[in-house]
């Protein structure tokens, strides 16, 4: 009997679909960037989005053996700036997926909150992907509270659901 597996590419596809939905919604409703937000000790939705893409970028850089971009240098003044960071992070991730990386060999890195740490690249990759999804779910609640309703299904089930 085989066990079901979720591949990195399947999870990346879900994150990209979700990110694209938010990019489009925010392009239509850029006023949402200024909405108040208390998630992760930030003040605005723009800062929450900065946090989402900063984690994507900084972990993609660590996995690529590049210096992590200074968090305060990651822009969040516009939808375009926010998602340019996301796009850059995912270009790094896609290069890594086609490389010969040993996804199970632990690496050492430093985090903003915990300091020095060690984990496998596989764990780091899945963390950055699930981290984005988790915060996008929180953002959906914030958007609805501002009277802006996302118009796409965000559940993973909808990635491969067929009506019968």
From TrEMBL:
Q: List each coiled-coil range.
A: none
* Residues at which a divalent metal cation binds: 51, 131, 135
**Record InterPro entries:** DinB, DinB/YfiT-like
Q: Which UniProt keywords apply?
A: Metal-binding
Give the source's domain of life in one word: Bacteria
Q: Which GO terms describe its molecular function?
A: metal ion binding
Similarity comment:
Belongs to the DinB family.
In terms of PANTHER family, this protein maps to: DAMAGE-INDUCIBLE PROTEIN DINB, SLR1116 PROTEIN
Protein name, per record: Damage-inducible protein DinB
Q: Which organism is it from?
A: Tunturiibacter gelidiferens
Give the classification, highest ranks: Bacteria, Pseudomonadati, Acidobacteriota, Terriglobia, Terriglobales
